[in-house]
Amino acid sequence: MVDVNKVVDKIGCWHVPVFLLIILRSWPLNFHILLLSFAAPSRQDHWCARPENFTEIYSTQEWKDLAIPVVNGKYSRCLVRKFEEFEGKINFLNETQKCSSWEFDTTYYDWTLVREFEMVCDRSWYVSASQSAFMAGIMVGNVIFAKIADRYGRRKSVLWSTLLILVSGTVTVFCRDYWSFNVARFATSIACGAYQCTVISIMMESLSANKRMWAMLSSLGWTSGSLILPWTAYFLPNWNHQQMLYAASAIPCLVVWYFLPESPRWLLASGRVDKAEKSMADVIRKNKVKDIDLDTMFADYRQQLGLEKGSKIDPGSISNPTYGDLFRGPKMRFRTFCILIMYFANRLLMFHLTFFSARMGGNPFWGFTLVTILTTPADVLTVFFIRYVKRRPSMFASFVGTGVFIVALLPFGEESFMARVILCTLAKILNTMGASILGVFASESFPTVVRAMGIGSAYTASRIGAMFSPFFKELTDFAGQGASAGLSASIAILGAISALNLPETLNKMLPDALADVDPEVYAPVKGIIKERDQSRGQEEAI
User: Fold this and answer.
1) Going from the N-terminus, what domains does the chain have, and what CATH number goes with each?
2) Among 85, 313, 448, 527, which is disulfide-ready with 269 (CB 3.0 to 4.6 Å)?
3) What would the pLDDT profile of 457-497 be if each residue is shown by its tens digit?
């Protein structure tokens, strides 16, 4: 039988492109997903602009003192006092009116999207809407490219998505109105969705059961990207320059793709036996694997399928799974729903905390960086948890702990900057660990034939959560911080309950056929190869 786990168990040169891609793909993901945190900051102060002929008469501070009303101890961002001119004198009245144009504070930010598209006051929700639209695009990319990856291969999916992110990211730079900007960003977000589901599938299918802690390299890439992001905005205060750099960040992925091997597990699952044999021979050669008789292994496999070497499997003998297969059997359906809920909850809380860390108070660049640095130990701890700790209790603790620390933020306002940093950091550590463990947990739970589609569906659920996360700011403004904290805690509890309802997967063999999860439903008609499904008395071949 073909034992892929035994072939890929030794880490070596063959794995290098896979590891590089899982790290490097996190940079364009991070930069594009979090672009608006610094390119369209809600904290950039603004006020009604002086009439053109007033700029030489009043300084900025004089204008604010005379013309801008104070609301809740702060200068209004959206109202200005009416004034009248009489005999060369200017009298400011107690009546107010809405602004028609604005001036912006450039202490921390300069030419932002907020300034260019005037996303302030009645249009302030445009920022959250833009972020939600981007998350919706990722959801579309998850669905489309997961199907492409399962049907045409992981390498093709990576190539097409990399080219798309390069082109659309560059086009975004030249958009000069809100709507064209969002159309270009939507195309970029589709590519980001492809990066998520496809690359994690390659990663998991290239590792044996006891080497899956290497999947945390994805978290390392995200963390390093989060450290680069705020200082890119600091040194490149024009959003156009930031966007150009972020688009170019996909170029290293294109270089790595040239050396990227196709997943041998996918090659077998899709019936490409000769290519799978060649791929695994490449693994053995590059990683210097010993004591594996690949010729005998594949000879037995071909005999089981009734194939001659060099012959092709009849396409009619291969089942082509669909998204419907994730929900057809009761066990598979329940497993899928639990994973979808966990991804929804984890990512909603993740982006809520990420956006919050950029507006906690104080210097936004240092605040974001400090939280990221203090969260770094999560990457180290995650290696230990993935290798030795069971998935279910790990995820339960992650969700419950994240919810507790978010609720603990309630008593602290912007004046309690360090208290906010500490509590936000603790919540992010638990949430980040949960995200890395969940990526492994989900990949271990879905069978090979639908793994990319399963992960794609999970990321789709995560994007629904991420679409709602920007509006936590509006919820806090409307109903208070208690409402957003209570909602966060409820969602965390929902994720924790879902984690406890999944089967444990630590150090277990990856399921390959749908029948491995739901044999009563899928065994007669579904599986990697129909002939193999008829021999279920033997151990799974892959």
Assistant:
1) 4-42+121-265+321-500 (1.20.1250.20), 46-104 (no CATH)
2) 448
3) 888 888 788 888 777 777 777 777 778 888 889 999 999 99
CB 433 within 8 A of CB 215: no
Is residue 148 within 8 Å of 200, Cβ to Cβ? no
Please provide the average confidence, as pLDDT, over all residues in the chain: 84
> What is the rounded average pLDDT of the residues 206-230?
82
Task: Report the alpha-carbon distance of residue 268 to residue 277 in Å, rounded.
Answer: 9
pLDDT tens digits, 160-171: 999 999 999 999
Q: Cβ neighbours of residue 154 under 8 Å, at least 6 residues apart?
A: 198, 199, 201, 202, 205, 262, 263, 266, 452
Helix (H, G, I), strand (E, B) or coil at 47: strand
d(CA 105, CA 103): 7
- CA distances (Å), 189 to each of 129, 196, 205, 490, in order? 14, 11, 25, 28
Tokens representing 425 are: 């950091």
Determine the pLDDT at residue 526. Answer: 35
Residue 247, pLDDT > 90, answer yes
- Of 5-19, 90-104, 213-227, 235-249, the least confident: 213-227
483-490, Cβ contacts within 8 angstroms, sequence gap of 24 or more? 484/352, 485/406, 485/407, 485/409, 485/410, 486/407, 488/348, 488/349, 488/352, 488/403, 488/406, 488/407, 489/403, 489/404, 489/406, 489/407
Confidence of residue 319 (pLDDT cuts 50, 70, 90): low
At residue 542, the pLDDT reads 32
**Cβ contacts of 542 within 8 Å, gap of 6 or more:** 2, 3, 4, 265, 268, 269, 448, 512, 528
pLDDT of residue 43: 78
Rounded Cα distance between 368 and 225, Å, is 12
Residue type, 356: F
Residue with tokens 């680069």: 228
Q: State how far the alpha carbon of 231 is from the alpha carbons of 32, 45, 253, 366, 368, in Å.
A: 15, 20, 22, 9, 10
Query: How many helices and strands, by DSSP H and E, does the chain display?
Result: 26, 6
CA pair distance 61, 363, nearest whole angstrom:
21
Q: What's the residue count for the chain?
A: 542
- Specify the pairing of strand 46-48 against strand 89-98: unpaired
Task: With a cut of 90, say whether residue 218 has pLDDT above it.
Answer: no
pLDDT value of residue 280: 87
Token pair belonging to 30: 């991070």
